[in-house]
Specification:
mainly alpha
Protein backbone atom coordinates (compact mmCIF):
# COMPACT_ATOMS: atom_id res chain seq x y z
CA UNK A 1 0.00 0.00 0.00
CA UNK A 2 1.37 3.38 -0.99
CA UNK A 3 2.12 5.82 1.78
CA UNK A 4 -0.08 8.96 1.46
CA UNK A 5 1.76 12.12 0.69
CA UNK A 6 1.66 14.42 3.73
CA UNK A 7 -0.22 17.65 3.22
CA UNK A 8 1.89 20.67 4.19
CA UNK A 9 0.34 22.91 6.83
CA UNK A 10 -1.41 25.99 5.57
CA UNK A 11 0.66 29.16 5.87
CA UNK A 12 -0.48 31.62 8.51
CA UNK A 13 -3.04 34.12 7.25
CA UNK A 14 -1.50 37.46 6.42
CA UNK A 15 -4.00 40.13 5.33
CA UNK A 16 -3.03 42.32 2.41
CA UNK A 17 -2.51 46.07 2.65
CA UNK A 18 -6.16 46.79 1.89
CA UNK A 19 -7.70 44.19 4.21
CA UNK A 20 -10.54 45.58 6.31
CA UNK A 21 -10.47 48.99 4.64
CA UNK A 22 -13.52 50.77 3.28
CA UNK A 23 -13.59 53.83 1.10
CA UNK A 24 -14.65 56.97 3.03
CA UNK A 25 -15.26 58.86 -0.22
CA UNK A 26 -19.06 58.85 -0.22
CA UNK A 27 -19.50 59.70 3.45
CA UNK A 28 -16.69 62.24 3.25
CA UNK A 29 -18.37 64.05 0.38
CA UNK A 30 -21.75 64.02 2.14
CA UNK A 31 -20.24 65.26 5.41
CA UNK A 32 -18.35 68.05 3.63
CA UNK A 33 -21.49 69.22 1.81
CA UNK A 34 -23.60 69.21 4.97
CA UNK A 35 -20.92 71.03 6.97
CA UNK A 36 -20.87 73.60 4.18
CA UNK A 37 -24.62 74.02 4.67
CA UNK A 38 -24.00 74.52 8.40
CA UNK A 39 -21.59 77.33 7.56
CA UNK A 40 -24.17 78.86 5.20
CA UNK A 41 -26.84 78.65 7.91
CA UNK A 42 -24.48 80.38 10.33
CA UNK A 43 -23.89 83.20 7.86
CA UNK A 44 -27.66 83.52 7.43
CA UNK A 45 -27.89 83.75 11.23
CA UNK A 46 -25.24 86.51 11.22
CA UNK A 47 -27.52 88.58 8.95
CA UNK A 48 -30.45 87.94 11.28
CA UNK A 49 -28.35 88.88 14.32
CA UNK A 50 -27.33 92.15 12.67
CA UNK A 51 -30.94 93.01 11.85
CA UNK A 52 -31.98 92.20 15.41
CA UNK A 53 -29.23 94.43 16.82
CA UNK A 54 -30.11 97.25 14.40
CA UNK A 55 -33.81 97.14 15.32
CA UNK A 56 -32.99 97.12 19.03
CA UNK A 57 -30.57 100.01 18.52
CA UNK A 58 -33.33 102.07 16.92
CA UNK A 59 -35.61 101.33 19.87
CA UNK A 60 -32.83 102.30 22.24
CA UNK A 61 -32.47 105.61 20.41
CA UNK A 62 -36.11 106.41 21.11
CA UNK A 63 -37.46 105.55 17.69
CA UNK A 64 -41.21 105.00 17.37
CA UNK A 65 -43.73 104.39 14.62
CA UNK A 66 -45.21 101.60 12.57
CA UNK A 67 -42.17 101.35 10.31
CA UNK A 68 -39.90 100.63 13.26
CA UNK A 69 -42.35 98.04 14.60
CA UNK A 70 -42.47 96.32 11.20
CA UNK A 71 -38.67 96.24 11.07
CA UNK A 72 -38.52 94.78 14.56
CA UNK A 73 -41.08 92.12 13.59
CA UNK A 74 -39.13 91.22 10.43
CA UNK A 75 -35.95 90.98 12.49
CA UNK A 76 -37.60 88.62 14.98
CA UNK A 77 -39.06 86.49 12.19
CA UNK A 78 -35.71 86.23 10.42
CA UNK A 79 -33.94 85.45 13.70
CA UNK A 80 -36.35 82.58 14.43
CA UNK A 81 -36.03 81.25 10.88
CA UNK A 82 -32.23 81.33 11.16
CA UNK A 83 -32.36 79.42 14.44
CA UNK A 84 -34.52 76.68 12.88
CA UNK A 85 -32.23 76.48 9.84
CA UNK A 86 -29.15 76.21 12.03
CA UNK A 87 -30.70 73.43 14.09
CA UNK A 88 -31.83 71.40 11.08
CA UNK A 89 -28.51 71.62 9.23
CA UNK A 90 -26.53 70.88 12.39
CA UNK A 91 -28.49 67.70 13.15
CA UNK A 92 -28.17 66.43 9.57
CA UNK A 93 -24.46 67.21 9.44
CA UNK A 94 -23.82 65.63 12.85
CA UNK A 95 -25.41 62.31 11.86
CA UNK A 96 -23.42 61.99 8.62
CA UNK A 97 -20.22 63.33 10.19
CA UNK A 98 -20.32 60.74 12.97
CA UNK A 99 -20.81 57.95 10.42
CA UNK A 100 -17.84 59.29 8.48
CA UNK A 101 -15.71 59.61 11.63
CA UNK A 102 -16.48 56.04 12.68
CA UNK A 103 -15.39 54.79 9.26
CA UNK A 104 -12.13 56.76 9.05
CA UNK A 105 -11.28 55.77 12.64
CA UNK A 106 -11.85 52.14 11.66
CA UNK A 107 -9.58 52.52 8.63
CA UNK A 108 -6.95 54.26 10.74
CA UNK A 109 -6.90 51.24 13.03
CA UNK A 110 -5.82 49.17 10.03
CA UNK A 111 -3.17 51.69 8.98
CA UNK A 112 -1.77 51.99 12.49
CA UNK A 113 -3.19 49.47 15.01
CA UNK A 114 -1.17 50.77 17.97
CA UNK A 115 -1.15 54.53 17.45
CA UNK A 116 -4.48 55.41 19.06
CA UNK A 117 -4.98 56.70 22.58
CA UNK A 118 -8.77 56.16 22.48
CA UNK A 119 -10.85 53.07 21.74
CA UNK A 120 -12.90 53.15 18.53
CA UNK A 121 -16.17 53.65 20.41
CA UNK A 122 -15.04 57.06 21.58
CA UNK A 123 -15.25 58.28 17.97
CA UNK A 124 -19.00 58.62 18.65
CA UNK A 125 -19.32 58.38 22.42
CA UNK A 126 -16.76 61.09 23.04
CA UNK A 127 -19.16 63.73 21.68
CA UNK A 128 -21.93 62.88 24.14
CA UNK A 129 -20.17 62.37 27.48
CA UNK A 130 -20.16 65.66 29.44
CA UNK A 131 -16.83 67.34 30.22
CA UNK A 132 -14.68 64.84 28.29
CA UNK A 133 -16.44 65.96 25.11
CA UNK A 134 -14.29 69.08 25.37
CA UNK A 135 -11.18 67.14 24.30
CA UNK A 136 -11.91 63.45 23.53
CA UNK A 137 -13.25 64.08 19.98
CA UNK A 138 -10.19 66.16 19.12
CA UNK A 139 -7.93 63.36 20.35
CA UNK A 140 -9.77 60.78 18.23
CA UNK A 141 -9.58 62.94 15.11
CA UNK A 142 -5.94 63.83 15.77
CA UNK A 143 -4.87 60.18 16.15
CA UNK A 144 -6.90 59.21 13.08
CA UNK A 145 -5.28 62.04 11.12
CA UNK A 146 -1.76 61.02 12.21
CA UNK A 147 -2.37 57.34 11.41
CA UNK A 148 -3.71 58.23 7.96
CA UNK A 149 -0.77 60.36 6.81
CA UNK A 150 0.98 58.53 3.92
CA UNK A 151 4.34 57.02 4.93
CA UNK A 152 7.22 59.39 4.46
CA UNK A 153 5.00 62.46 4.65
CA UNK A 154 5.41 65.05 7.38
CA UNK A 155 2.52 65.11 9.86
CA UNK A 156 0.87 68.54 10.03
CA UNK A 157 -1.98 68.74 12.54
CA UNK A 158 -2.63 72.49 12.34
CA UNK A 159 -6.01 72.11 10.54
CA UNK A 160 -7.32 69.80 13.29
CA UNK A 161 -6.13 72.06 16.10
CA UNK A 162 -7.49 75.22 14.45
CA UNK A 163 -10.88 73.59 13.83
CA UNK A 164 -11.19 72.34 17.40
CA UNK A 165 -10.13 75.67 18.92
CA UNK A 166 -12.77 77.58 16.98
CA UNK A 167 -15.40 74.93 17.72
CA UNK A 168 -14.84 75.16 21.49
CA UNK A 169 -14.77 78.96 21.39
CA UNK A 170 -18.04 79.04 19.43
CA UNK A 171 -19.70 76.74 21.99
CA UNK A 172 -18.62 78.89 24.93
CA UNK A 173 -19.61 82.17 23.30
CA UNK A 174 -22.92 80.69 22.11
CA UNK A 175 -23.88 79.65 25.63
CA UNK A 176 -23.00 83.08 26.99
CA UNK A 177 -24.95 84.79 24.20
CA UNK A 178 -27.97 82.54 24.74
CA UNK A 179 -28.08 83.36 28.45
CA UNK A 180 -27.65 87.07 27.76
CA UNK A 181 -30.40 87.02 25.12
CA UNK A 182 -32.81 85.17 27.44
CA UNK A 183 -32.13 87.67 30.24
CA UNK A 184 -32.47 90.78 28.04
CA UNK A 185 -35.26 93.04 29.37
CA UNK A 186 -34.61 96.30 27.52
CA UNK A 187 -33.32 97.39 24.08
CA UNK A 188 -29.83 98.07 25.40
CA UNK A 189 -29.43 94.53 26.72
CA UNK A 190 -30.93 93.16 23.51
CA UNK A 191 -28.38 95.04 21.41
CA UNK A 192 -25.53 93.59 23.46
CA UNK A 193 -26.97 90.06 23.29
CA UNK A 194 -27.53 90.25 19.52
CA UNK A 195 -23.97 91.42 18.92
CA UNK A 196 -22.58 88.60 21.06
CA UNK A 197 -24.74 86.12 19.16
CA UNK A 198 -23.41 87.57 15.89
CA UNK A 199 -19.86 86.91 17.09
CA UNK A 200 -20.84 83.37 18.13
CA UNK A 201 -22.42 82.58 14.76
CA UNK A 202 -19.39 83.96 12.93
CA UNK A 203 -17.11 81.71 15.00
CA UNK A 204 -19.33 78.72 14.28
CA UNK A 205 -19.27 79.45 10.54
CA UNK A 206 -15.46 79.59 10.61
CA UNK A 207 -15.32 76.33 12.60
CA UNK A 208 -17.65 74.65 10.08
CA UNK A 209 -15.46 75.76 7.17
CA UNK A 210 -12.37 74.37 8.90
CA UNK A 211 -14.28 71.15 9.61
CA UNK A 212 -14.91 70.83 5.86
CA UNK A 213 -11.18 71.17 5.21
CA UNK A 214 -10.39 68.51 7.83
CA UNK A 215 -12.97 66.09 6.39
CA UNK A 216 -11.80 66.58 2.80
CA UNK A 217 -8.09 66.30 3.57
CA UNK A 218 -8.42 63.30 5.90
CA UNK A 219 -10.64 61.51 3.38
CA UNK A 220 -8.14 62.13 0.60
CA UNK A 221 -5.22 60.90 2.73
CA UNK A 222 -7.04 57.65 3.43
CA UNK A 223 -7.98 57.26 -0.22
CA UNK A 224 -4.34 57.56 -1.26
CA UNK A 225 -3.36 54.82 1.16
CA UNK A 226 -6.24 52.58 0.10
CA UNK A 227 -5.44 53.07 -3.59
CA UNK A 228 -1.83 52.20 -2.91
CA UNK A 229 -2.94 48.66 -2.00
CA UNK A 230 -4.65 45.96 -4.08
CA UNK A 231 -8.17 46.52 -5.32
CA UNK A 232 -8.39 50.22 -6.12
CA UNK A 233 -11.37 52.06 -4.68
CA UNK A 234 -13.08 55.15 -6.15
CA UNK A 235 -11.19 58.33 -5.32
CA UNK A 236 -12.71 61.17 -3.28
CA UNK A 237 -13.74 64.28 -5.16
Amino acid sequence: MATPTPVPPAPPFAPGPGFGLRSPAGLGLAAAVLLGLVAAADLFACVADQMEASAAQDLLGGGVGEDLLRRAHRADTLYNAASITQGATLVAAAVVYLCWLWLVRRNAGVFEPYGHRMKRGWAIGGWFVPIVNLWFPRRVVLDTWTASVPPGTRVRTTPVNAWWTLWILSLLVSRAAGRQYADAHDPGELVSAARLMLFSDALDAAAAILAVLVVVHLTRMQQRRILAGPGALPAFG
